[in-house]
Amino acid sequence: MSFERPNIAKMHGYSPGEQTGSGDTIKLNTNENPYPASPEVAAALRSIDVDSLRRYPVPMADAFRESASRLHKVSPNNIIPTNGSDELLRLAISTFVEPGEVIAVTQPSYSLYPVLAEIQGCKLFEIPLQANWSMPADFFPQLEKSAAKMLILVNPQAPTGGLLSTEYIAQLAADFSGIVLLDEAYVNFVDPELGYDSVSLINCCENLLILRTLSKGYSLAGLRFGYGIGAESLINPMMFKTRDSYNTDHISQQLANAALNSTAYSKQIWQRVRADRETLRTRLNELGLATPVSQTNFLLCQVPDSIGAKNLYQLLKQRNILVRYFDQDQLRDKLRITVGKESENLALITAIKQIQETSP
Amino acid sequence: MSFERPNIAKMHGYSPGEQTGSGDTIKLNTNENPYPASPEVAAALRSIDVDSLRRYPVPMADAFRESASRLHKVSPNNIIPTNGSDELLRLAISTFVEPGEVIAVTQPSYSLYPVLAEIQGCKLFEIPLQANWSMPADFFPQLEKSAAKMLILVNPQAPTGGLLSTEYIAQLAADFSGIVLLDEAYVNFVDPELGYDSVSLINCCENLLILRTLSKGYSLAGLRFGYGIGAESLINPMMFKTRDSYNTDHISQQLANAALNSTAYSKQIWQRVRADRETLRTRLNELGLATPVSQTNFLLCQVPDSIGAKNLYQLLKQRNILVRYFDQDQLRDKLRITVGKESENLALITAIKQIQETSP
Fold this sequence. Notes:
The structure is a homodimer. By secondary structure, chain A is an alpha/beta fold. Chain A folds into 2 domains: 6-36 and 264-358, Alpha-Beta Complex (Aspartate Aminotransferase, domain 1), CATH 3.90.1150; 39-263, Aspartate Aminotransferase, domain 2 (3-Layer(aba) Sandwich). Helices cover 38% and strands 14% of the residues of chain A. Chain A contains 12 helices and 11 strands. The first copy, chain A, has helices at residues 6-9, 39-46, 62-72, 84-96, 112-119, 139-146, 166-175, 232-242, 250-260, 263-286, 309-318, 342-358; strands at 26-27, 79-82, 102-107, 123-128, 150-154, 179-183, 208-213, 226-229, 298-302, 321-322, 334-338. In chain A, strands 2-8-7-6-5-3-4 form a 7-stranded mixed β-sheet, with helices on both faces. A two-stranded parallel ribbon of chain A has the order 1-10. The longest helix of chain A is centred in the C-terminal third of the chain and has 24 residues, at 263-286. Chain A is globular and about 60 Å long. The termini of chain A are far apart. Chains A and B meet through α1, α2, α4, α5 and α8 of A and α1, α2, α4, α5 and α8 of B.
């Protein structure tokens, strides 16, 4: 017997990257941060009293909203805290997009978006990136033609690592009649000298909703904490109507707040990941795995046909090194590799060298 | 400018009970447990290493599912862990009820249900309880006539405190063609001698979805952890399709698991709340506030017209005692009072006495 709604019955769920319980595995497949959260976060964790959990949490995570507003120089009313950024994606779709309406995404993009569109009964319109991962020249005409209610862009992009400029985002938001949901999951790893800053755009673009997460930049994937930044007309309906009343818990509120207030520590971590990213990229290119510049904490490298991406993924897995292989168009000859600790990156490079040397 | 879907634009959000930051307030308004979670939960909290938060949590909370399956003598596949039981309610509606279809509830009931129905664009069909809070004799004919896809029942009932028998639930689930969502948020406080047990019904009733939460019975409202129990045909679509991929976080999984494994401690707490509930009920009745038997951790008492429920609520609030007043039909002459610690219950009774003595 099935009670499922028809659109749920016919859909498939999202497949997260492999998780592993083994401490020996070098895990470079789900873009987790190789360094722990700040000492301030550790102190916040130690200060939690189990008796404080008897009570419901502060419904709107007021302290976190204040911290985020100071960090981003916006009002607390421009911030919505969520149970991971997954919740923000779902809330945005279920609040603003009717079943049957269109959601536009680039192709490739984050594989969760099509799943969320299906759950809401929305149509998905995919606009392919060019071979070099840049946006096609006719992106906006295609978007207009789709009559999309919402456009979801990851910036910096996943799984490609590229970055759209602030000016491009501003123009897009100004021209588009629907909502631009800008998924900035990886924004903390962007080179500061690029001067990328989308947050200031929320003052002029009432249709721009920016997604942030503490999973990557703040080493808190296990905590499930994200937030949205946008005009009050976008934030309020989610905050006061569609959000589960107590969507973030007491512990995660304290830790997330401590994380945002550990700026000096976080900046060091991001700088270190960027430096290691460049070293790893150089090594991969030297080995013949063409790897373009990335503004994220991962690299997307092209694997020569002589080895093959899927084969290399499997051979690395046999050596206890997990990377991400996507069985989909444009990506079957590539691997996405998270920037790990220096020793982990070195182990990866050594393993690829060995595999190349023993290949026929 | 508003981008909201039409049904969201016209709706109002849910109003949770008042929360207060003041340590002096006696808080008997949101059904929180007056005693802390078990020593095992405190130990689990102390054992969390902040470095473990770098990684994504176990996506399906395997250890918790195992513990819940042992506790309830079902398969782990019959269990879905959720970010508070609010998430289970939302998931059940968004997975099984199409926009435009009908959700049936009793009146009065938990005030969140109509909000969730509105978000999904569902119609709400309310079946009034009788004056003594029992189900009307023609409940099932009314339900059938509504053509509801889902019936949501709180058992033991909120805000009335009454209990429907296992046999009544079994008959209802057998006769009804839709899903029976049985919200057992307060089930831990039911007198064990009543032998109430709905969980065994999931083996014969494929349309029965049972909701549990750790907020009340396990003193963990601040943690946001609930779960569903049901046939795999009900659990799987939510588990593998509509749930956010990492809906419960690493810390809450560990603490929730420890809570379910603290059976001896929990049973003591529940017994104590039951005993204090009876004492409080006796005192309220002695003061002329008619208070029927309750199988929950709260009491719904009728306030004589000479004082008035809203007035008493306000006078208690002036004395730093919060109770819950509902401005709605059938409830305007009543207050819902959470069973607190012995000293808190005594302070409440003393305050009501003083108010009565100083009333004109």
